[in-house]
Amino acid sequence: MNETRQKNPMSAATVNSRVYPRGGMDILSRHEVSRLHDATKGGMHDLLRRCALAVLTSGSASDDPRAALVRYPDFDIQVVQQDRGIKLELSNAPAEAFVDGKIIVGVAELLFAVVRDIAYVASEIQGSGQFDLEDPEDITSAVFEILRNARALRSHVDPNIVVCWGGHSIGREEYLYTKSVGYQLGLRGLDICTGCGPGAMKGPMKGANIAHAKQRRATNRYIGITEPGIIAAESPNPIVNELVIMPDIEKRLEAFVRIGHGIIVFPGGVGTAEEILYLLGILLNPENADVPFPLVFTGPQSSAAYFERIDQFLRLTLGDAVAERYRIVIEDPREVAIYMQRGFEKVKAHRLDSKDAFFFNWSLHIQPEFQHPFVPTHENMLKLRLHREQPAHELAADLRRAFSGIVAGNVKEEGMRAIEEHGPFVIDGEPEIMRALDTLLRDFVAQNRMKMSGDYKPCYRLIA
Question: Where are the strands (E) in 275-394, listed by range?
């Protein structure tokens, strides 16, 4: 039975409710129900609570991961076991997730995706003993199993998934441009995968959604891939109809490049820079020289200087050859879509020749330094090897870690707490790289690309 209440005029309205399975969790054996119930107890409960609250506040304009818990401090979720399967008991849940006392269908589906992924990772990946999560092949297998369990892998479908990266904090002109690109992709029958949040993650989905409707396309995929550390700051946008929660940022990034057939990068901040360096570090590995992977950097005319700066930074740090792995397209959504579509034809031909699957890019070699989780402590940030006397793909790995640490300090609860207790992260390296990094980060701050909410106070200090 649903009950809506509001403790006082200043508090947020809340609902108590029972929610029954949606999104592929409606037929479970007793053993599966028992495992789900057990996996979401104990140490997993706080994780489940935080991720569930992010889904229930979908579309939030705040990127402070603690904001939702402050607004709904009494929220709780319990996984209740019953012979018919499971049900969720929600206490003091955000009323915005309900209409006339009933939970919004899409929100319910995403809520059960949270339960599914957290429970599956806890019981079948981390707790089963089947995977050595220090071994590169086992890590890739774990990523595959999580995606398969989430029903994100579709066989007998030609390559058509475009991964779109970009900032959650972008201006109106850039956001409208992402919609235009998404529209052109949708007209060509392509599906969209993003980090699931607002800004450049929402825009392409919204544009594609309109185009899919115009083409009367019945089965459309708007895949959001996230991880527990970021979901509270970038809650799923309302268009996401497939949500996958990976256990950490490294497996999230691997999921993008394994499930996607090409990537479009829109303007963004340090999170986008992290994603760029992750992918280019992989593509620069000689073992991946012959693997086609269409990659486009694009934005409106007003973003041309942004991509010039990104291009300069990449060439300085990784060498001019890095530019052979991406193309920059300014103010031309149609050209972006055509380039991506043609790139998919090359991807298909290569997968057929190499006997690789269309639904999972097994042939891409990912080095261990891009797979092992990086914990952004003050000590680890200071140890990063940011110099050019090493292979380009190894430098890219540590540059990726530097940006990952800044992301943690900006919008992840543990990182923000570490900064509050010990001050900014200190980053040291080759002077020319440090100067280029300082210029890039200053641009991000000046362009309001670090955070959506509140004045930005840098969580890092560079030693030049």
Answer: 295-299, 327-330
In this structure, are residues 193 and 182 in contact, taking their beta carbons and an 8 Å threshold? no
CA quadruple 63, 65, 70, 75: dihedral positive or negative? positive
The string of DSSP letters for 24-63 reads S-SS--HHHHHHHHHHTSTTHHHHHHHHHHHHHTTT-S--
Are residue 363 and residue 377 in the same domain, yes or no?
Answer: no
Same domain, 222 and 356: yes
Count of domains for the chain? 3
In a domain, 383, yes or no: yes
Asked whether residue 166 falls in the same domain as residue 300, the answer is yes
pLDDT profile of the chain (464 residues), mean per 10: 47 86 61 66 81 86 74 90 78 94 92 90 87 95 97 96 94 97 98 95 98 96 94 89 96 98 96 96 95 98 95 96 97 98 97 96 96 95 95 95 93 90 95 94 88 77 86
CATH code, 46: 3.30.1850.10
The CA–CA distances, whole Å, from 1 to 26, 75, 351, 453 equal 20, 17, 51, 36
What element of type H or E holds 146? Answer: helix 136-149
Same domain, residue pair 268 and 413: no
User: 233: Cβ–Cβ under 8 A, 6 or more apart, which residues?
Assistant: 63, 64, 65, 168, 197, 411, 412
d(CA 371, CA 365): 11
Of 106, 122, 138, which residue sits at a domain end?
122
State whether residue 460 is helix, strand or coil. Answer: strand
Encode pLDDT of 132-154 as tens digits: 999 999 999 999 999 999 999 99
Could you tell me which of 182, 163, 330 has the C-alpha nearest to residue 252?
A: 163
Task: Write down the H helix ranges in 163-295.
Answer: 172-187, 203-214, 228-231, 249-259, 270-283
> What pTM did the predictor assign?
0.92
Q: Which helix (H) or strand (E) holds 64?
A: none
Does any domain span residue 148?
no
The 10s digit of each residue's pLDDT in 191-244 is 999 999 999 999 999 999 999 999 999 999 999 999 998 888 788 999 999 999
Q: Residue 245 is part of a domain; what is its CATH number?
A: 3.40.50.450
